[in-house]
Design a protein that fits this description.
CATH architecture of the largest domain: Orthogonal Bundle
Strand order of the largest sheet: 8-7-6-5-9
CATH topology of the largest domain: Hypothetical protein af1432
Distance between the termini: 44 Å
Structural class: alpha+beta
Strand content: 5-15%
Mean pLDDT: 87
Shape: globular
Bound molecules: fe (ii) ion
Helix content: 40-55%
Length: about 400
């Protein structure tokens, strides 16, 4: 049986099925391991691994942990409760009506970030006026219907990871800042910090950034330095707000002190950096890379939930889950009728989003694309319900082809 247990409950003889973190976030060569000594457990704790999945068929059993299926069910129930208790307002304008503007905004953001990275490489100043104008446009789109930009986040080329990741973290932070009703200046500073949070990666050699294999310990240390490199880069751009520098320096810090580069704990990490940590991890996990496919949006939320109170500030992690919803746009779902579709818009009732169906699994054939608004009754464009999440990989469909 696969079950989730706390790292501190492990003992020699246990078989670790999964380290419950990204493969560059643990120090071991393989993703599975039989624990031979207490030293291994201490190394895991030193690396900030709080919980792991163990296989009790291949090694000793420990702890009182639930089975994987029980843990997954409990997580999904908790996510649904967080998102649906005092839910955040959802857009009244259908997503497809906002899509044209969202695409234009995203396109402009791609040009801006590309040019900005080039300017930084050449030691030039960041064009702050352009940055704020672009973020104003982004905010109008988010205010009108935040699902549109979120949906477009799912569409990215694998080799554009750093650029798209910067934009997406900016979008996620601006969405949180807008929903939190922060002042305009704070909203823009957060969004700018999101765009710039990984700016230090321009100093990390490309062969490390794009290496498909597991990084060596030395390469991993160099990769981690990107947080510190931001300081030197921002020294030449005095207009960059202090919040943005803190976000770049501290976005890999974790509130239990297990992060880097300083191992800061709790409130020693700036509020802006605590918010960035959540958006950064969610986008990094859900992105396809050159060397692996990203996880589904719901798996991204499950991971964020799992890190509440240890890696992430609980308040911000819960707020993030509320902002994204139970069925994030871009998620693949199965309906009770056997239809398979992708979530293209949300409704005030978070459990009943708008789903674009493309396949009938009961009959075993594709169907013409059509939207089912699950908030509406049968005969009025609705009349179905979601029974489970599906993985995009299983259906081999590019979300882009499902956009009209
Ligand atoms: Fe980073
Ligand atoms: Fe990042």
């Amino acid at each position: 049986m696969i079950k989730k247990v706390r790292t501190e409950d492990l003992k020699p003889g246990v078989f670790v099925h999964h380290f419950n973190c990204g493969w560059n976030r643990h120090p071991f060569l393989l993703n599975q391991k039989r624990i031979k000594s207490d030293k291994t457990i201490q190394r895991m704790l030193d690396w900030g691994i709080c919980e792991v999945l163990i296989d009790t068929d291949k090694g000793l059993d420990v702890g009182e942990g639930p089975s994987l299926a029980e843990a997954a069910r409990a997580t999904d129930t908790a996510i649904t409760e967080i998102a649906t208790t005092a839910p955040l307002p959802r857009p009244h304008i259908p997503t497809h009506q906002e899509m044209a503007r969202a695409r234009k905004v995203r396109h402009e953001a791609m040009f801006f970030v590309h040019d900005m990275m080039e300017d930084i490489r050449q030691g030039k100043k960041i064009k702050m006026d352009q940055a704020y104008a672009m973020m104003d446009a982004m905010e109008i789109s988010i205010d009108t219907n935040r699902d549109a930009l979120m949906y477009l986040m799912r569409i990215r080329k694998k080799d554009e990871y750093t650029m798209m990741h910067s934009i997406n973290v900016g979008v996620l932070l601006l969405t949180m800042a807008t929903l939190l009703r922060l002042k305009r200046e704070s909203r823009l500073h957060l969004a700018l910090g999101g765009l710039l949070h990984d700016v230090g990666k321009v100093k990390v050699p490309a062969q490390i950034l794009k290496k498909p294999e597991k990084l060596s310990p030395e390469e991993f240390v160099e990769m981690q330095r990107h947080a510190l490199y931001a300081q030197g880069i921002f020294a030449t751009s005095r207009e960059v707000p202090p919040e943005a520098l803190q976000m770049a320096l501290q976005h890999h810090e974790r509130i239990d002190g297990s992060g880097y580069p300083f191992g800061l704990k709790g409130d020693a990490i700036s509020i802006a950096a605590q918010m960035t940590a959540v958006a950064d991890v969610y986008d990094a996990l859900t992105a396809d890379r050159c060397y692996r496919d990203g996880v589904s949006p719901i798996d991204g939320l499950r991971f964020i939930y799992g890190g509440c109170g240890t890696h992430f500030n609980r308040k911000f992690a819960h707020f993030f889950i509320k902002a994204i919803g139970v069925y994030p746009v871009g998620s693949f779902v199965r309906l009770e009728s056997g239809l398979i579709g992708i979530v293209v818009g949300s409704n005030p009732d978070l459990l009943r989003p708008v789903v674009r169906v493309f396949y009938n699994d009961s009959r075993g054939w594709p169907v013409a694309l059509r939207d089912i608004d699950l908030a509406k009754p049968l005969g009025h464009g609705g009349g179905d319900r979601i029974v489970s999440h599906e993985t995009a990989n299983k259906w081999k469909v590019d979300p882009l082809t499902l956009l009209r």
